[in-house]
Amino acid sequence: MKSIFLAALLGLAFFAVSCQKTDDPDAFNPADKNAVTLEFDHRVGGQRLAFNTTYKNGSGEEFTVTMLNYFVSNVSLTKDDGTVVKFPDRYFLLRLADPKTLNLTLPDVPAGNYKQVTFSVGVDSAKSVSSADALKGVLDPALWADPMYWSWNSGYIFWRFEGTSPAIPASATGARIFNLHVGGFGGRTAPTPNNLRTITLPVGTELAKVRNNIAPAVHLLVDIAKFFDGPTKISLAKTNQVHAPVAAVPLANNIATLFSIDHVHNDKE
Question: What per-residue confidence (pLDDT) applies to 4?
Fold first, then answer.
């Protein structure tokens, strides 16, 4: 009788421990994997960025946007224990005109709690000097409707931002257009500035929790207002045509300030 009672107690204890582990929202199997999505939400201050909409920059100049394309690469995620998970040789081309390009999916992310996201805006020198047969997917210039390449020496256009503004002096045709292009990876032969910018963002108190049944979405804000009001203040009346790496350095420095993480969705699938 005593042995039966003891066995029953052990069974109850095992059941209680099992339930405790199952109910623990932070418990995970290190062997599990799932996807993480980075959602890029473009704003101008408190307004959502959209085409055919008039905004005002820090210099008081009105502007509208007709194009925003840029590359994101070298993505990595950092766990709360300091472990870094890298996603090499993955390049994304975000195009405001194509909403499906604004959500970047990272597959097979190991289970864990992630506290930090790192990525670069641009295309690194190693890929920029690769042979043509290595430039596939979004890096294949032949696939673009909107060219994202300067030259063999200067390489890719990392960031292509275009629009109109009444503050810009009229051209011979009467157009008041800005074309602000950022690129330059260091150059193949003739030296150019390296305008690749690497950005590291803390996720915040609500960590991105990857589980077998949780594929978190990290919601990033991209504030175009800061493009004009970063370390270098940009007035469209004075700076409206940039098509070379040297002139693009101040713009690249401003781009590094645009991004922040607003929140994380850890919804169960």
Answer: 54
Indicate the pairing of strand 177-183 with strand 84-95. unpaired
Contact predicate 140/156, CB 8 Å:
no
Q: What is the pLDDT of residues 5-43, one digit of tens each?
A: 545 445 554 444 444 445 566 778 888 999 999 999 999
Question: Is residue 131 a part of any domain in this protein?
Answer: yes
Q: For residue 15, is it within any domain? A: no
Whose CA is closest to 259, among 64, 75, 86?
75
Widest Cα–Cα separation across the chain: 102
Task: Select from 14, 40, 36, 79 the least CA-distant residue to 266.
Answer: 36
Q: Which helix (H) or strand (E) holds 156?
A: strand 155-164
In angstroms, rounded to a whole number, what is the distance separating the alpha carbons of residues 154 and 192?
7
Residue 19 included in any domain: no
Phi, psi of 144 (to 5 degrees): -85, 135
What domain range is 241 assigned to?
31-265
Q: In 10 A of CB 101, how many CB atoms?
A: 16
**pLDDT cut 70: percent of the chain above it:** 91
Domain count of the fold of the chain: 1
| Residue 107 is assigned to a structural domain of this protein | yes
Average pLDDT of the chain is 90
What pLDDT, on the 0 to 100 scale, is given for residue 17? 47
